[in-house]
Amino acid sequence: MPPVNAAMRCASFEERRDQAMALFAEKGFGQVSMRELAAHVGLTAGSLYHHFPSKQDLLYDLIEELYEELQATLEQGRRAMARGASALSCLIAAHWQLHAERPLQFRLAERDLCCLSDAQQVQLASLRKRYEAGLLRLIAPQAKLPGQALEATAHVLATLLNQLPGLLKALPQEQGLELMENLLIGGIERTLR
């Protein structure tokens, strides 16, 4: 039998992560044991522990990866601005696409964040704040609200960008993107005057 190369091992592990994510999303993170998780992804519990010391570490990795992808959407917005295009339109399209590609990660980040350790929650909160601050600087650079109001505005805008695609998925993409843009532009204009 030929040796399994690193790319094949990596692809196999990615498939297993997707299977783990689906199980968490279906049953709820707290309802899945490591033994059940290992059986579901086709590994022994020992092999699973080799990759992740705990379920929390796996969940943290999945949510952290989502925040890294969200951070990357900001770079897409910056490039759109550099081309003279609307950063907001680009961000809305990027979030719509990311939600289509990773709906389970969004669900886990929203529903199961509380299952992580305090230290992990603090680290993810820091990643989210960085993302939210970058988002606000990009789409509302002239915002002049007091500190807490500005943070709250950034949080609401990020929440809308991250949840509206899931709420509007029954609509055709073009209609959903237009509705998202109208909702966000209206909110930004009224809030940040």
TrEMBL record:
Indicate the residues that the entry says bind DNA: 33-52
Q: Does the record carry Transcription regulation as a key word? A: yes
- HTH tetR-type domain location is 10-70
Which InterPro entries does this entry report, sorted A to Z?
DNA-bd_HTH_TetR-type_CS, Homeodomain-like_sf, HTH-type_TetR-like_transc_reg, HTH_TetR
* Keywords for the protein's UniProt record, in alphabetical order: DNA-binding, Transcription, Transcription regulation
Q: Which domain of life is it from?
A: Bacteria
* Protein's recorded name: TetR/AcrR family transcriptional regulator
